[in-house]
Design a protein that fits this description.
The structure is a homodimer. Chain A is built from 9 helices and no strands. The first copy, chain A, is mainly alpha-helical. The interface between A and B is large, with 51 and 51 residues. Chain A binds a DNA duplex through α3.
Amino acid sequence: MDSASQILDIAERRMRKAGFNAVSYRDIAAEMNLKSASLHYHFPKKEDLGVALVQRYSERFEALVEADTADLETPQEKITVFVRSYRNAFEEDGLVCLCAVLGAEAPGLPDPVASEVKQFFERMIDWLTAQYEDLSFAAPRAQAQSAISLLQGAMIVSSATGDEAIFEASANTILVAFKPAH
Amino acid sequence: MDSASQILDIAERRMRKAGFNAVSYRDIAAEMNLKSASLHYHFPKKEDLGVALVQRYSERFEALVEADTADLETPQEKITVFVRSYRNAFEEDGLVCLCAVLGAEAPGLPDPVASEVKQFFERMIDWLTAQYEDLSFAAPRAQAQSAISLLQGAMIVSSATGDEAIFEASANTILVAFKPAH
DNA sequence: GTCTATAATTTGATAGAC
DNA sequence: GTCTATCAAATTATAGAC
């Protein structure tokens, strides 16, 4: 794999654990057996690294959702798979969404990074709003905003307490709306 | 006001904006027209400052909820006021909950600080669980976990996007369960 | 309690050789 | 692309005077 991607991989994992300011060029370089100066060739400033990080994360996530929901026909199915994608991503590597972490410290981030985080959330909400519109919900955007907020918050609270049941309960709240009444 | 409280005030405001690692003794001291060395008299290590910060935040928040809900009789009223307390705290100063920010970077925090954050969430969930139990909800704890997650996530997404409507929509999702059917 | 002085370490970043 | 060398600034922290 090329160095740039490797840098992004390591930076992403570390930032999802501890935030933007807790990750240093030196730490990343050490893990790659490189010198920190070499990283500046790929990402001159940390701000550049941050922007590239969120952009890649954003594109990757959208591509994943697109791929997983492409063959589905109903909005219910699409939302269900969307939530499960989030759950899988969270449970597999045990890391909170990159934008949940960066979003929490957004006012302290370099402006271009904060802007990318903002766009990530807006795209997520737009996508989910479209699904709720197809379902003729009375307030599709409010529904989407709540669902995204719930997922993001659940990852944080679940991670901070070490209680996976919190995420499960929250994800289930979104899905239960589609279960047939008994 | 005594210096310790003043330090905590400034540190809290800054950390709620940008996270634990973005706040330095120097910055805090400068705002007080002090030298950074003086701060170490009150909080020898940054870890001590972090613990004191979360403890004070936690106690203050619980006292506020206790005071606001003491005279209320029904769980519905208590939950409603609880959510409104969160909303007021968020909208008045425009800052995300301290534990939302620290919770997002929990794996990167000093252990004693992370432990305090964890306890904050557990206490919040316990309190809310008790209310849902009184309402005879089928899964009171799951309900409480979802509600806390939703509030925390809504602050973050709302703050990161600059869209206050997101928090409003999310808070309303919790409250709407009590509105009489028309 | 706050100061001066200072230390040790870390950090983001640059210049220039290979 | 990666290295060595280096830098200026920032950061946590301590010792000891006042």
